[in-house]
């Protein structure tokens, strides 16, 4: 859980650095709200079905915010001089 919060914070900071301030703040708020879905993303999650809070947060989040955050996350490895990772996700 701590890792997901750390990753979310990094994604928000990276997104803030790449977009206009107002839009970036809106995305930051939206991405923070999606943290209610984090327990579903952890290995060994007990309940694979999202609850209404997760679905509501996801529905209220602009898809570009999520996509840009994921794209930014994939660049972190190169910025840290680490091998890149491929999760088999196509955007």
From TrEMBL:
<feature type="domain" description="Bifunctional inhibitor/plant lipid transfer protein/seed storage helical">
    <location>
        <begin position="27"/>
        <end position="87"/>
    </location>
</feature>
<feature type="signal peptide">
    <location>
        <begin position="1"/>
        <end position="24"/>
    </location>
</feature>
<dbReference type="InterPro" id="IPR016140">
    <property type="entry name" value="Bifunc_inhib/LTP/seed_store"/>
</dbReference>
<dbReference type="Pfam" id="PF14368">
    <property type="entry name" value="LTP_2"/>
</dbReference>
<dbReference type="InterPro" id="IPR036312">
    <property type="entry name" value="Bifun_inhib/LTP/seed_sf"/>
</dbReference>
<protein>
    <submittedName>
        <fullName>Tapetum-specific protein A9-like</fullName>
    </submittedName>
</protein>
<keyword id="KW-0732">Signal</keyword>
